[in-house]
User: Fold Dihydrofolate reductase from Pseudomyxococcus hansupus.
Amino acid sequence: MRKLKYHVATSVDGFIAHEDDTYGAFMQKRLIEDSEHVMDFIASLATYTTALMGRRTYEVGLKEGVTDPYAKMDTYVFSRTMKESPNPRVTLVADDAVGEVRRLKAQEGGDIYLSGGGAFAGVLFAEGLIDEVLLKVNPLILGAGIPLVSSLRTVVDLELKSTKVYGNGVLLLRYAVIPKPA
Assistant:
C-alpha cells in the first residue's frame, strides 16, 4: 500500500496560510534565501508520484495561471464546487473523496503527496488515511489564518521520526501517524 504524506509548511502557531488563502509571510527573503530547505523540498517531490489537494489549495496556483502544479505527478483536486478541471492532466474528484483516496493508496506506485489543505487534511486524518506528517515549521507567528488541520473529531497520535534545523530557522519535523487500534 502506498503512503499518504501530509507535507506542508506551517507557522509556529499552526497556520499554513493567511486567512485570505495567501502565503506571503512564508515567502519572505530571509526564509527562502537559504536554499537548502528549498532544495530538500524539491528533492522530496521526486519521491511522490501522486499529488492531492483541495480546491482552495489548487486555486492559489490557478489564480497565477498554473493549471498543472505538479506536472511529473498524477494530480487530483477534491472539490464539490468546481464543475470541470482546467487541465486534462488534473483529475477533479467531486464525490466520495475518502473512497478515491483509499483507491489511490491501494494502487501500485510511489508515495502520495497531500499538498496543503487543512480542511481536507482533517477529513483524511479522521479516516486514518494519512501515514506521515512532514512539517516545515517556519519561524513565524501569524496569529490567524488557515489552520494546519481543521475539524478533527479525535486526537491523532504521532511518533517523531526525524528533525532537521536549517540555517534560516526553518525546522523540518517528520512524524509517523500511529494507527488507532482496530
The radius of gyration is 16 Å. Strands lie at 4-11, 15-17, 48-54, 74-78, 90-93, 111-114, 132-138, 146-147, 158-165, 171-177.
